[in-house]
Description:
Elements: E1 4-8, E2 11-15, H1 24-31, E3 50-57, E4 60-67, E5 80-82, H2 96-103, H3 113-126, H4 132-138, H5 149-162, H6 169-184, E6 189-193, E7 196-200, H7 204-213, E8 218-220, H8 226-231, E9 240-242, E10 250-253, E11 256-260, H9 265-275, H10 280-283, H11 289-294, H12 297-302, H13 310-316, E12 320-325, E13 328-333, H14 334-337, E14 338-340, E15 343-344, E16 351-358, E17 364-370, E18 381-390, E19 393-402, E20 409-410, H15 412-418, H16 425-434, H17 449-468
Parallel strand pairs: 1-5, 7-9, 8-9
Antiparallel strand pairs: 1-2, 3-4, 3-5, 6-7, 10-11, 11-16, 12-13, 12-16, 14-15, 17-18, 18-19, 19-20
Amino acid sequence: MTQLQFLLNDTPVTLTEVGASDTLLDHLRLTRRMTGTKEGCAEGDCGACTVLAGRLTGDGLVYEPINACIRLMASCHATHIVTIEHLRGPDGGLHPIQAAMVDHHGSQCGFCTPGIVMALYGLWMTDPGADEAAIKTALQGNICRCTGYAPIIRAAQAAGAAGGQAQDALARERAAVAERLAAMRGGRITVARGADRALIPADTDDLAAALIDEPQATLVAGATDVGLWVTKFMRDISPAIFIGHLMKEISVEGDVIRLGAGVTYSEAAPVIARHIPQAAEYWQRIGGWQVRNAGTIGANIANGSPIGDTPPLLIALDARIVLRRGADRREMPLEDFFIDYGKQDRHPGEFVEEIVIPIHRQARIAAYKITKRRDSDITAVAAGIRVDVADGTITAARLAFGGMAGTPKRARAAEAALEGQPFAEAAFDAAARAITGDFQPMTDMRASAEYRATVARNLIRRFWLEQSEPGLPVRLRLTEGV
Length: 482
């Protein structure tokens, strides 16, 4: 097929001329003249461009806030895109979220307000009784320069208390929308604007076949990184194969979690919280909500970035990946996938299909992410730590770091300093000293080499403090009321 189809608010859209690098935000603002959705950063960071994307899943029709600025148009096929213009109350007036923002003075200049309203709309639909912590999490990906967040949080609480979800337009239209989206599904879609070409495979087998034919193609899942290649670096990504709708399988078999490479951070969050609860807080610091709704674990791995959020934790957990080329598959330890900066063990025509994560129910586990600001920021140093202890002795240690080398990498000298030693402070002090020989970090805009080395040592000591005395406060917290 050569037509891209989706719903835009209550209007069906069919496009035949779509380039791989075309963004949803440009389509909304320049083609449709729907200027309620704003461009602030053009990199999925500020949230001013937030819209909802409704897609069919195994659980039915799900709506999620996403960043329109880095959402490439080909990823919109068979989805329902909802913008600020579609919001309305049961009587046709202001939506409860909008009314609450007015009543609680949640806006000043207003530039960021549509994106904030859309993020809160997504929360209002799925968690109407959301507490303050949940509201703050929903707003991680929205930056407001002038209003301050207290009145916005009060507005979200008031809208939740007001209710009205059953009368909301998206709730009333859900069955009809799901039927229309299902009718858009079919075979492979190929669209282009001149030489800028996008391909949307029908299923994973079709992806395997397409990548054999065009091994040089750019694979695009959530575009949380590729989108910046387009908006910031003006890179030509054509031909691009869009795979964000594929490989969504999640299963837990015994002590093994299996995640399809197309599982997003948000989709994986419940299984992580259930089976690796030590990483649940870390998981919620991967980007903002919009990024977690779009970004996929497989792409975070395949991208090979030394500061990718998931590899340090997954390496510490002895995760493996399944690579596929055509009908052939091979499985390898995740740590072996990363060869050098920008170089991974992936052959032409091959793609990451599945991530296999052992569940270490008795191990001591932690995941840490160090950034300039707490929420929605790129990692300076990330760490995944797993220590197995039997009868007071450390029987195995896995310490993996991101941001410390050209690839996500284990700290083998630090591991050796721990293994076979008593589970005691002296062992972790020795490991902290030993890690100096594991890495030669670089200095860049995010952190100096000295800072990174100090942080890595201190994270090992922090792990000891947290594990030796679980109730011990190891973080600075704001005084209540400040």
